[in-house]
Amino acid sequence: MNPTTGSFTNTARGDVVACVCGADSPNGAPIPDASPGPGLSAEDMDRLVADAKAASLAPSTRKTYRCGWRNWSSWASDHGVPVLPARPQDLQRWLVWLADQGKKPNTLDVYLAAVAHKHDELLDPNPARDPRVRRVRSGLRRQAAEEGYIPKQAAPLRRHHLDLIADAAFEPRRNQPGARLETPEQAAQRAVIDIALVAVAHDPLLRSSELLALRWSDINMAEDGRCGLVRIRRSKTDQTANGAFAPISESAYQALQRINPPDADPEDRIFNFSATTLNRRIKAAAQAASIDPANISSHSPRVGMAQDLVANNVDMAAIMLAGRWTTPAMIAHYTKHLAANDNPAAKHLQTQHPPTAKRPRRQPLSQTKANPLAA
Q1: What is the rounded CA–CA span in Å between residue 125 and residue 104?
Q2: Which pTM does this prediction carry?
């Protein structure tokens, strides 16, 4: 290496090569540190950088964050306070205002996360992560709990619920309020899809995004021939698409074969509809089977399978692996009432015999009061 010219000599060939790290070239002209490259302007690279940053969040998260940021921006503009950068005292007032408008604690958390995300590259420390803001958020959550707020959880659709749905699926029904009653043919076409839908969501504990991403090429019969195998290309906890495989029951595999068009392209999506339609169909299928639809959602089959596994004494680590969870917190949340049946207190109570009712002792006649009517 020549420190004067910023070059080095390849000893094998005797070539002199200029070093492109800010030193001058042999002819004295400065060499730039970097080049945009052919076809890429600085604006192009900035756009690609922005696209890459946006891709770090799931589309649903980006949509929710946009909603939270719009809410903050509107509130700040209406109250004449800075939108960006935000001030901790203004964020505290905004959170209190949101709670007064009836927003739930989980919504407050998501909206504040949206503001924090927007500020991440602008300020340090981030005003949305200020301890004063966190204390207000914590206090609002406690106040909501004292007023009776309970976070919603999807009701489970367990294996026996799937049987009920299959039994009721072929009955013609109205799929929208005021809509026409299905013909038997229409009911049959809808029924086979509904049955496959809940079964394939349940067995491999699929999230709605994973279920809707399934393609026909992702479904195979397992090598032992006893069940099917689903390939999950990408998931919430696998954003880089390393992929995973999960088993499905023989009945779920057969349900898929019944709806597989003979001319289907292997890369066609199996369930080609929106997340909203998915949610509506599963709720309607449950209601038709006389299952309370109040908290049924597209997440219900996943919750139900988690509960089925706990009920069959599968350990937590195995359930985490099956459902692609990175922590046991959500499994514990989904199955806490089942776990209560297996804790030490429950086991102790199960060994206890019910107390026998004792007949009251009769007092001797001499100690009873005289009957005023006896004479």
Answers
A1: 27
A2: 0.61
Q: Does residue 137 contact residue 112 with C-beta atoms inside 8 Å?
A: yes
Q: Which residues are bridge partners to 238 per DSSP?
A: 235
What DSSP element (H or E) covers 323? Answer: helix 316-323
Residues 128, 84: Cα–Cα separation, whole Å: 11
Q: What is the DSSP string of 209-244?
A: HHHHT-BGGGEEE-TTSSSEEEEE--BTTBTT---E
pLDDT per residue as tens digits for the range 148-200:
877 778 899 999 999 999 999 999 998 887 889 999 999 999 999 999 999 99
pLDDT tens-digit map of 14-58: 444 344 444 444 444 554 444 545 678 888 888 888 778 777 777
For residues 99 and 124, give the distance between their C-alpha atoms in angstroms, rounded to a whole number: 27
Neighbours of 267 (CB within 10 A): 9
End-to-end CA distance of the chain: 133
31: helix, strand or coil: coil
- Host H or E run for residue 255: helix 250-259
Residue 6 vs residues 26, 80, 134: alpha-carbon distances, Å: 8, 56, 53
Strands 219-221 and 228-232: antiparallel
Of 32, 24, 18, 21, the closest CA to residue 9 belongs to 18
